[in-house]
Amino acid sequence: MRLMVAFSTDDGERFNDDHFGMAQYFHVYEFSDGKEKLVEAREDVKYQEDASQKHGDPGKAKATSSVLGGIDVIAGRKFGPNIVRLLKKYVCVAVKTDRISDAVQMIHDNIDKVIEAKKQGEDRKHLVLRNRH
For an engineered disulfide with 126, which of 34, 71, 92, 114 has Cβ 3.0 to 4.6 Å away? Predict the structure, then answer.
């Protein structure tokens, strides 16, 4: 099975420090046939919000989703309240590491769990992966 996975980042090497949707970029990797490769970097569309709106605003989820066409899995260090909306479209993976390269390996090592979550559709739960080092 081929999976497209977006990792939230500001610099291409480490995860951003805020919620998934607050990243400057999403680095998209293709996972297929036991291998993974970086296929593109997508710039995040910043949702125009006013000061009265908080994390979890539906518009933020919609703005983030607008740049994630063709993505199956989203991976980040933190997710905000919008995770309930994002889970309807994506497998959400919270990775307990700072480096994108470590997270790529963690998903590789747990690909069966990720595929199973994808098959569950809108009823899926998020996954939490920890580095074994």
Answer: 92
The encoded tokens of residue 120 equal 């569950």
Handedness of CA 68, 102, 34, 93 (dihedral sign): negative
Q: How many CB atoms lie within 10 A of CB 56?
A: 14
Q: pTM to 2 decimals?
A: 0.89
Tens digit of each residue's pLDDT (9 = 90 or more) over 34-83: 999 999 999 988 644 444 445 666 676 777 788 999 999 999 999 998 89
How wide is the angle at C-alpha 45 spanned by C-alphas 66 and 97, nearest 5°?
Answer: 90
Q: Which of 27, 43, 17 is nearest to 101 (CA)?
A: 27
Domain residue spans in the chain? 3-47+55-130
Domain 3-47+55-130 has CATH 3.30.420.130: yes
